[in-house]
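Q: My collaborator sent me two sequences in one message, no labels, and asked for predicted structures for both. Can we handle them in order? The first one she listed is below.
A: Yes, handling them in the order given. First sequence, followed by its C-alpha cells:
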Amino acid sequence: MSTIPESVAKVRARIREAAQASGRDPQDVQLLAVSKTQPASALREAFACGQRDFGENYLQEALAKQAELGDLELTWHFIGPIQSNKTRALAEHFAWVHSVDRLKIAQRLSEQRPARLPPLNLCLQVNVSGEASKSGCAPAELAALAGAVAELPNLRLRGLMAIPEPTDDPAAQRAAFARLRELKEKLGLDLDTLSMGMSHDLEAAIAEGATWVRIGTALFGARDYGQPPR
C-alpha cells in the first residue's frame, strides 16, 4: 500500500504526463486534495509533500480540521452540496466554493462574506450528465445563473464544476468534460477555472481543459464511508 508521499508523487506525475500529452503546461493544472473522512494527520502528511489546497464535502468535519491544522497555511475548498443554513460558515472559513448551483446560495454567500476577507472564489456546478440524483444546475439554466452570480459583490465567479456520471470509457469521459468546457466558452464571461476530473478520469479531464482536478482515493486510499459530522 502506497504511503501518502508516494501517492502524491504518483498523482503529480499523472497530472504532468496528461498535460504534456495534451500540449498543455502542467503548471496550468492544479491538484485539489479531496480530504473528506481523512484524519487531520493525513492532511498534515500531504502538506509536508507540498500540498496546500484541500477540498472538503462535510462542513462540520472541515471546520474541525481547520481548527486542528490552524498552524499550517492551507487553502480550503468546499466541494459538497450546500444547505442554506451552512452558507455563513462557508463564507467565513473557505477560500473557494466549487458546488454552487442556485442563485439563493450565491446571494447568501455574498451577503455573509466578511469584509476583512478577499472575495470568495466560486464555481457553478453543472449537471452535465442529467442525473436525477446529482447536484448541479441544468445546462439550459447556466447562462442566467452565471450572469446573476457574476454581478454579486464579495464573490469572484471563477468557472464551472462538474461530477459526470462515472464511466470507464475514455471517450465518454472526455465527452462529458468537453460539454463543461463548451458551456464555459459559450458564457462569454472572464472565467479561468474548470474544476473537473477525479482519481479515475483525471487524464480525460486534463485533455479537455481541467484547471483543478479533485483527487481523493489516489492520494489517500479508499475512504471510510461512515457518517462524519456535517
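Q: And the one she listed second?
A: Here it is, processed independently of the first:
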Amino acid sequence: MNVGDWISHPANWAFIILGLVVAGAAFRVVTSQNVIHAALALVATLAGTAGLFLLLSAEFVAWVLVLVYIGAVIVLFLFGIMITRAPTGRDVALDHPRKAWATIVALGLFVALSWGSLRAFGTTELANQGEPTATETVGLSLLGRFVIPFEAVSFVLLAALIGGITIARKDLTPAEEVEREAR
C-alpha cells in the first residue's frame, strides 16, 4: 500500500485528525503552567484516544476510557485540586533548569521507538482474524469472571476520595467552633 492509497481512505483522514488532536493536547498537558488547564488538556487527550479506539472498532475499550478515566479519575483529580485549595498557577520552584534536555531525550525516544516499530513491522497489514469480540461478551466476562477485581478497584477509588476529603478538611480551633455554634 502506497501513500496515495492510504490517503484515499476516509478512516485514515479521521485517524490523522484525531492523532493531531491527541498529540497537541498531550503536548499541552506537559507544557501547561496551570494544573487545571493541564487536567483539561488530559481530558482532550483521553477523548481523542477513545476516538482512536472507536476507529479500531474497540467500542468497549473506548467507552471504558471515557467512563473510567475521564468520568472518574479526572473528575476525582479536579475534585482533589479544588477541595484542597492547592495553588493552580505557575510555581517557579518546580521548574527544572534542564527542561531542554528532557525535550531532546523525549524526542529521541520517540524517534527510536518509531524507527524500531517501522523496522520490525514495516508495511505489514494486520489480517482480519474474524469478527471482533462483541461488547456484550466483554461485559459479561468482566462482570462475571472479573467481578471481584472490578469491585476492588471501586473500593480503591472510594478510599482515595475519602482520603482526599480527610486531608483537605480544615480542623477548626476551639475559638472557631464556639463562634460557629453561636451563629
